[in-house]
Design a protein that fits this description.
Number of domains: 2
Number of helices: 8
Low-confidence stretches: none
Distance between the termini: 29 Å
Largest sheet: 2 strands, antiparallel
Strand content: under 5%
Structural class: mainly alpha
Mean pLDDT: 94
Radius of gyration: 15 Å
Shape: globular
Length: 146
Amino acid sequence: MSEFPLRSPSAKVGGIFHFGRMLDKIRLHAQGRLLAEYQANLGKGFDGSCVRFLGIDYGELAEQVRNGGGDEEILRWCLERGGRRRSEREIHVWNEFMRKLGWNDEVTDTLKRRKKEGDLEDRSDIQTMFQFIDADEGREVETDKL
């Protein structure tokens, strides 16, 4: 399998989970290369959670990404646009919340359904949505302690 064109949701930009993956999706979509199954949720789900955390509008972010710039530059734009920098503690809480989604919470049923749909039901190492995404996209699953 060739390398999947989206980063893992656990890859960080500026210390923040999922941000780089969201930028990857925006860029691929602008190039007409984003897989169809990812297009319906642009700006929703984890993307929506991320932009709400940053205090920005997804449409404005997508426009900024299409205008160009590196990941860190775009993150700086978001932090300026969102009104304030997030503290290290806020970023830590955000990251831990996102990293553990699907593990004994309101997303658990969705994770179980997605594992079944992806023929990954027998994978006890997949306990979170981040782990599911990595497995589903052909990356090694990080099995650190929850």
